[in-house]
Amino acid sequence: MLPIAAPWLDYAGLSVFAASGALAAARRGQTPVTLAFFALVTGVGGGTVRDLLIGAPVFWVRDPHVAALCLGMAAIIWASPARWWRGAALDWFDAVGLAAYAVYGAAKALRYGVPPVPAALMGVVTACVGGIVRDVLAGEPSILMRPELYVTAAALASGSYVVMTALGVAALPAALIAAAAGFCLRAAAMRWKLALPAYPAED
């Protein structure tokens, strides 16, 4: 069930999530150690929860490249000029990671025998938990509490991949199409402030 490009999807998600974590710390004038910690926790948070839930070995404990990749992204953010990361850089990094990681999480869950609907949810967990941890540590409102389309974009990516593979679409094109769909929805949400309707607190 894992596409040929799965390692690249995994590392792409790791890289951009780690960068978003490091940027969150950098914007608050933190130390290199704090940037490294934010990068690692943001990068591996969702995948760790996913692996524990599906009964897989925790990926970053077994793969010697994962922690190094996260720490390397923190070092790049620390060493680069602050002007490179102004504006919406954090949001765009996060959007790329969201789409790639949602697809990879769903694919890995399917590989471990998880049924389709829970597998799609594992994609959402993979894509969103790291960002939730990052926001909590940074003192920002959690992505779960924002009206904009975020979790929905992850669900579109992971759900699309699960549906397409169930219909017999080859894993690689299914992964690319699903990741592109999730990214486009998240990009549209950022560009036009798209949001789901909120529950009315009062009549």
Quick structural summary:
By secondary structure, the protein is mostly helical. The protein has 8 helices and no strands.
Your description of this structure?
With 203 residues, the chain is mainly α. 73% of the residues lie in helices and 0% in strands. α2 packs antiparallel against α4, α2 packs antiparallel against α6 and α5 runs parallel beside α7. The longest helix has 23 residues. The chain is globular.
Main attributes of the structure:
single chain; 203 residues; mainly alpha; globular
The proportion of strand residues reads: under 5%
Rg, please?
16 Å
Secondary-structure content class = mainly alpha
Oligomer: single chain
Quote the average pLDDT.
90
Residue share in helix: over 70%
Q: Report how far apart the termini are.
A: 47 Å
**Strands, count:** 0
Query: What string, H for helix and E for strand, traces the elements in order?
Result: HHHHHHHH
* Low-pLDDT stretches: none
The largest pleated sheet is described as: none
Cα shape:
globular
Number of helices: 8
Question: How are the elements arranged and paired?
Answer:
Blueprint: H1 6-26, H2 32-54, H3 59-62, H4 64-79, H5 89-111, H6 116-138, H7 151-166, H8 171-192
Helix pairs in contact: 1-2, 1-4, 1-5, 1-6, 2-4, 2-6, 5-6, 5-7, 5-8, 6-7, 7-8
